[in-house]
Input
Amino acid sequence: MRAVNLSKSEWSLMNALWEHAPCTITGLVELFSGETGWSKHTIISMLNRLEAKGAVRHEEGSRAKQFYPAIDRADTRRQETRSFLSKLYGGSLGLMVNTLVGEDVLTKEELDELDAILKRAQEGRK
Output
């Protein structure tokens, strides 16, 4: 998969496409009208930029273009996570978790979830 860097706004638009594809421009304007207030022109500009990046594709519909994600959500999340870890923690997952634990930002539920994830990972290596 080719690496695609997405801005916060592009992530919002991609999440909408992953959830609701195919989408028309009008449909996207309706989805974001209450949340962001993005105009039709803003969404068109973002879709053009995302198409140029290879993240979005479109097909000509009977009345309007139908937009689809051209990249996989899970792959994109993995790529973004690796990039985040690399930039902020030199690629060290342990350092990131240690920072979160040291700052007391993890709730009991999150710690339990993390423990369950680590147990599954450990079992998968046996």
In short: Residues 93-126 form one domain. Helices lie at 8-20, 25-33, 40-53, 73-89, 93-102, 108-124. The longest helix spans residues 73-89.
